[in-house]
Design brief:
The chain is mainly α. 82% of the residues lie in helices and 2% in strands.
């Protein structure tokens, strides 16, 4: 009887320690993600107010006022994608501090590439869309963290759907259709809403498998923050198509 009580106590202590480890790991992931979002928001706003930077990114037709990305502009737009690929490919080789630095540099460059939204949409509608995105993201992240349903089976479906809308978006850039753009936006919102819950659950499960005090845990936390960051940014951009008020 006494042995059973001792074993029961030890088991309870292990469970409590494991849950504490998960909470600490998940908290660090969301903290890094929030920091990256703040950097992106500040970067986007600051660079949108710099006329010189905008002129460096775009070739502006003086007669019509139409703006078109130039070579530097394309470099800024595609730089975040390159940095994400570097982070993924260099995960094993890069140290935790290097991965941190790359992630937060990436978030600043992403802000530079998103600065143009302040030229297209009103500040009030951008803020409104951010609030809606934050509420949606927070709700789905909570669902993913607390649900007992295994969301793994939905992951492959969501990834396939994501690849589908990327292809559809490229085609729509060549042969533009407003109807197709609307359909892509709706599907995009649904996909990243689902991916938020899926990634939140995956991060929680990862927290049970690693020692939060280890160096590798810090690297996994950065990559987890990157996944959630991308979910948030893409959800925001798709919602902005619906909720954003364009400037005259």
């Amino acid at each position: 009887m006494n042995n059973w009580n001792i074993e029961q106590t030890q088991t309870a202590n292990k469970v409590a320690a494991s849950q504490s480890n998960v909470k600490a790991f998940v908290s660090s992931v969301f903290m890094y993600m929030a920091g990256a979002l703040l950097i992106t928001a500040v970067s986007a706003y600051v660079f949108s107010t710099m006329d010189g930077f905008i002129q460096m990114m775009y070739n502006i037709n003086p007669a019509t006022g139409a703006a078109k990305l130039n070579l530097f502009g394309y470099a800024i737009v595609f730089a975040p994608l390159v940095m994400v690929l570097v982070m993924g490919a260099g995960f094993n080789r890069l140290s935790a501090p290097a991965l941190f630095a790359l992630f937060f540099t990436y978030s600043a460059v992403m802000g530079m590439s998103l600065s143009s939204i302040f030229l297209v949409y009103t500040g009030a509608s951008i803020f409104k869309t951010f609030i809606v995105t934050a509420a949606t993201f927070g709700t789905m992240a909570a669902v993913g963290y607390t649900t007992k349903t295994d969301l793994t089976k939905f992951g492959s479906i969501l990834i396939m759907a994501l690849i589908g809308i990327i292809i559809a978006s490229i085609i729509n850039m060549i042969w533009y259709s407003s109807t197709m753009d609307l359909i892509i936006s709706i599907i995009g919102v649904l996909i990243f809403t689902g991916l938020t819950a899926y990634d939140a659950q995956k991060i929680k499960q990862l927290g049970y498998q690693i020692d939060n005090s280890s160096a590798i845990a810090s690297k996994f936390a950065v990559m987890g923050a990157l996944n959630l960051y991308l979910d948030f940014i893409n959800l925001f951009l798709f919602l902005l198509r619906f909720l954003g008020d364009r400037k005259n």
